[in-house]
Amino acid sequence: MNETVQHWLKQQLPTYMAEELAELQTNSIQLEDAFYRLLPFGTGGMRGELGVGTNRMNIYTVRLAAHGLAQHVVKNGEQARGVVIAYDTRHFSKEFAVEAARVLGAYGVKSYVFSEARPTPQLSFAVRHYNAFAGVVITASHNPKQYNGFKVYGSDGAQMVPTDVKVIIDEMKAVENLFTVPVADFEAYSEWILDDIDEAYLARLMELKEREVDASMKLVYTPLHGAGLVPVERGLRAFGFDNVTIVAAQAIADGDFPTVPYPNPEEAAAFTLAIAEGKKVGADLLLATDPDADRLGVAVRDGEDYVLLTGNQLGALVVNYLIEAKKEAGTLPENAVVLKTIVTSELGASIARANSVEVVDVLTGFKYIAEKIEQYTTTGEKQFLFGYEESYGYLVKDFVRDKDAVQLALLTAEMASYYAAQEKTLLHALRDLFETYGYYKEALISKAFVGKSGQEEMQQLLTNYRNNPLTEIAGVAVTCVEDYLTKTATFADGTTKDITLPSENVLKYVLEDGSWVAIRPSGTEPKCKFYVGVNDNSSENVCRKLNMIQTVFL
């Protein structure tokens, strides 16, 4: 590591990076964390803290990633088809996008670069719109302000498949000196894009419309300083909503995200200003998107206040709404399928199956949902209806192949308008679902494991659970342990069954009463996540069960 630091010290770094490196040398722990490894490039790309060093997001690690992608493009002879590059409003996002384009250009690869910040789902759409070979979005999604990332997409608009990602990684590893990665003038091989792709995306968004809406319904929307403002506001108005209020303070693109602790619509604190605005204008529904607008949070008016829906709850509502609306219109396919992840609530699955709609579980990560969509599109065996995950990611129409908060913002507003005509809110609709299909409740416990020692500790935690499987949780017997790393489900009587999903470091415990707990390290944050799901015949019972199980893992 010392050799690496010395090598960086010899470079002509930008002033801000040289100053940061000088300061780091006074803190051995922070210096080690910045240089102890090369920032990992996983199946979706890389994500990390901004700063100087090999384990940080900076122009040099971005150039290295772009070099790996460029080699992949060149090996396939697809320089002319090129790469689409988008970015969110984070610090250095546009700069990193330009640097990536310059590296691609050095290898003769064409780039289509958004001239303004736009959502990740719009990047997915643009890849297919331009028939590009690949796509890149510079984003760290809903991570804190000190993070950024480099996310890669294939020609189908979905996150790049592991075999192609391996090519990129191998090419990155082959570079001995990341300061030697070449760059070209941006203008030589790059083209700015914006208005045409905005219009094309908006036109496709109109395909989501199932029913007419009440134009006077009052909505509040906040982009949380991110990239969702233009498509969400334009989309809502094009859908027919005339009474949309934007949270002005959060409509300002700002990588510091100054008005929220974290720019994450899963967090109640992210809705503070939206709730205040909602009370001021008497809004029926509040919508919030994260910085790259692939996740949507929703709050519903309940008397004088607002109640936030969970990702699981909104997903179940949409499953029910789509099935009912399409049945009413006679457009529900006989081979319709709902896709969800293994850590997502079973409520939506129960609704779908009760309506003879198939449900397919996939591993955590929207790339697996996109993979299934591509499979069904190719074979025609099933017709995609809806895909979602508990972490506020949803997709309705497959002209995008990643989670799309813009799509869900429009459909959720339409759904709320539909129920309002019946003098109901989305909360009333959710309670109706509970009464019909049983009460479901979920929780997520996240434990942070920061730095090199933290990563080692997290891996040891998973190893301990794997080598010493729990036989009961909160006094309820474990009936099955699903180990997705070994792809084996082991039942209480000792019998086993193969798991057909890809291998991943996840453990899931299924309990005798139908409750479940899944344990997995996050793929994008230094955290281990514990997912808990319970169901019963009353709200009181599910709350009691959930609390008992949570206590075990807190």
At the fold tier of CATH, the topology name of the largest domain is Alpha-D-Glucose-1,6-Bisphosphate, Chain A, domain 3
Write down the oligomeric state.
Answer: single chain
CATH class of the largest domain: Alpha Beta
Shape: globular
Total of DSSP H or I helical runs spanning 4+ residues: 18
Percent helix range? 25-40%
User: How many β-strand stretches?
Assistant: 23
Any low-confidence stretches, pLDDT <50, length ≥5?
Answer: none
The CATH architecture of the largest domain: 3-Layer(aba) Sandwich
State the end-to-end CA separation: 36 Å
Mean pLDDT: 96
CATH superfamily of the largest domain: Alpha-D-Glucose-1,6-Bisphosphate, subunit A, domain 3
Percentage of residues in DSSP E strands: 15-25%
The biggest sheet, with number of strands, parallel, antiparallel or mixed sense and barrel status, is:
8 strands, antiparallel
Classify the secondary structure makeup into a structural class.
alpha/beta
For the record, the count of structural domains works out to 3
What are the main properties of this structure?
eight-stranded antiparallel β-sheet; 22% strand; TATA-Binding Protein; alpha/beta; Alpha-D-Glucose-1,6-Bisphosphate, Chain A, domain 3; 3 domains
Could you describe the 3D structure shown?
This protein has about 550 residues and is of the alpha/beta class. Helix content is about 40%, strand content about 20%. The protein folds into three domains: about 1-195, Alpha-D-Glucose-1,6-Bisphosphate, subunit A, domain 3 (Alpha-D-Glucose-1,6-Bisphosphate, Chain A, domain 3), CATH 3.40.120; about 205-435, Alpha-D-Glucose-1,6-Bisphosphate, Chain A, domain 3 (3-Layer(aba) Sandwich), CATH 3.40.120; about 440-554, Alpha-D-phosphohexomutase, C-terminal domain (TATA-Binding Protein), CATH 3.30.310. The protein is built from 18 helices and 23 strands. A hairpin with a 4-residue loop joins strand 18 (about 475-485) and strand 19. Helix 12 crosses helix 16. The model has no long low-confidence stretch (mean pLDDT about 95).
